[in-house]
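Problem statement: downstream parser choked on a complex file, so we are re-checking the raw output for the S-adenosylmethionine run. The parser issue turned out to be on our end (a line-ending mismatch), but while we're here, posting the original submission so the record is complete.
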Amino acid sequence: MRITEILQVLSESTRLRMLRLLAQEELSVAELQEILEMGQSRISSHLGLLRRHDMVSDRKDGKKTFYNLNPDVAERSDLIRFALAEESEEEFWETDRSALSRIIDRRRRASEKYFDEVAVRLGKNYVPGRSWDAIGHFLLRLVPNITIADLGAGEGMISQLLAERAKKVFCIDSSKSMVRIGKELSKKNKLSNLTYKHGDIEKVPLPASSVDLALMSQSLHHARRPDTALTEAFRILKQNGQLIVLDLKKHQFEKARELYGDQWLGFAENQLYRMVKEAGFRKVKVQTVAKEAIEPYFETILACGEKLS
Ligand SMILES: C[S@@+](CC[C@H](N)C(=O)[O-])C[C@H]1O[C@@H](n2cnc3c(N)ncnc32)[C@H](O)[C@@H]1O
């Protein structure tokens, strides 16, 4: 940049005011208008000139454009540095500075207001980008290198995901069709550590003390003898192995027997707690973890326990 050009740009008081402001804070055209109390076209034409001489750069943020002092040029040019460092004698600088701090204050209040408004939603349902899918994928990263038995696995939707991280996963199901579909899926997904076995959760086709985690997701209420199924889970677990049961909380929706082939209309929390304990598990915990928003408002309970020596 030629010296005469720099001098020419800096010799105009509005441009100098602008550069001083932009050295403090990035600002939009509207904000510059407000501080300098000038029309948009004047501000834009000064900005255009400053930009052509690389003294300012811009950043797009949605529909707004923010301008900054271009730090490279300002650093390279002694003249610009000098002009900005000089104690300003212009009468404008005090008013510019207080208008600037008013704008920065207003931006902070707008951001606080937004978070105040969404604070209630953040804790409950709404955070942009947060979903159970995303949380599920994140939690799956935490699955350790263990052997899992998915008892009453169905086609193995959960196991297909677990098998991506676990050492080995066995899917047990009494429906031949589910086992066939599951096998096809694991072949398609190239999951060589996922094995499907046709069998009953009341007589699990796995040896004693062979798995680290026994999982029953929405299968226990299908068992004729849920207590036997839990005893079987205990048998196949290694010492310190874990049981996780996800099932329906006791409900009154009789049609579930016909619609979903359910043997039991869910379980009361204390009923499941007793059954898990009586199967031999320790450190048993049962809690309600979800409630559906539509009728018949099924609730999900989660029970867990450990096989301790
Ligand atoms: C509601 S599905 C749950 C599937 C899977 N666990 C899930 O959470 O997506 C219940 C599954 O349990 C199976 N099932 C029912 N009674 C069973 C039994 N006695 N032994 C093994 N599997 C059984 C059914 O064939 C069905 O695939």
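For whoever reads this later: The longest strand covers residues 237-248.
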